Every structure is written in structure tokens, then in C-alpha cells.
Amino acid sequence: MHLSIPPSINYLTGHIDAENVVCKATTLGALEGVFADETQRAKSAQDKIIYQVEMLPAQHAEGELNFGVSHIEPGSVGDEFHMTRGHIHQRKEQAEFYLGSQGEGLLLMQTEQGEVTIEKVFPGSVHHIPGFVAHRLINTSDIRLSALAVWPAIAGHNYDFLTEVGFKVRVLKSSDGYKVVSIEEEPQNL
After folding, report:
1. Domain of 48: which CATH number?
2. Residue ranges of the chain with pLDDT lower than 50?
3. Which of 71, 139, 152, 179 is the most exposed place for a label (fewest CB within 10 A)?
4. Dihedral Cα 160, 33, 87, 13, nearest 10 deg
5. What is the pTM of this model?
6. pLDDT of the residue at 36
7. Max Cα separation, the chain?
8. What total of structural domains would you count in the chain?
């Protein structure tokens, strides 16, 4: 018999401890068209990391699961909080789980029919993202927002959702912390 040590997760930071962790950083320069204030985004440091994903090596077979962590840095572009690009799964019927690890923020979920649900993300929160729902994480705190994720290996990611349909709301800074503004109400010059 051989005793092996599996990968581990630091639940307080969301950091995965394993030899073969895959890391991907998304910079402000890669998020053209994501934030409302494109002028502000374009004149900001394009190499600034907005979010990172670390995950165990991807599985691909039917029935397998993938595990990763999204880390969204604090900050904003204009009045809009840092967030992930957001996506719907290529296999739209596939669901996903997020678990809050550190920081505070919001999970924005939107059906293909445009129905929006928003859940508060915080350490210990558990979020079920049903199939046929696009989703995005938004950091509304002053520290990094980290959320663990488990999803079917066959789900895939469709990032074109943003340009094809788009999210119907934005989360902006306000005197109370944040406010959710529908795209129809959105001021033209944030």
C-alpha cells in the first residue's frame, strides 16, 4: 500500500497547494468591452491583473469534475467594481458550484431570457449555479475576493456570451457600498 498526499486548499485564502497547479491571470488589457467606462479602462495600466484563476489540471472525460479558484483583485474601473469576464457554459445544461473563501462580493447570474439573480459572496457562502445560466463574480470589498469552483469537465466556457447577449446589470460604487444598475438606466458617461 502506498500513502499519497493529495492537493490541498487553504480555505482562508483559496490558494491551492499542489505541484501541478495551473494559473492564468487576466489583465485589464484583455477585458476590452467588459467595463462600462471603456475610455477609463483603455487609459489605465493594461498589464494590471484584474483576476486570476488557479486550478488543478483540467479533466476532459464525461463524468469528471474540475476544481479551481477565482481570485478577483479589489478596485474599480471608473465607478464599476473589478469583476470576471463572465461566461455561460458551452454545454449550457451543465451546472456549477462556487464557495466563498475570502473577501466579499457578488455572484451575478442571468438566464438566457435575461432574468437576473444576485447573491452575496462571503467566506463560507455556497452558490449553486444552475444550467442555462451565465455567471460573473464581482469584488465589492477592499481585499481580494476568492471563490472555489467545481464544475463538470465537459461544461466548457462560452465567453462570447458577453458580446452575443451581455449581462443586463452593472454593479457600481455608491455611498452605501454598491448599487446595481440595469443597463437601460446606465448613465452614458460613468
Report:
1. 2.60.120.10
2. 187-190
3. 179
4. 150
5. 0.93
6. 94
7. 65
8. 1
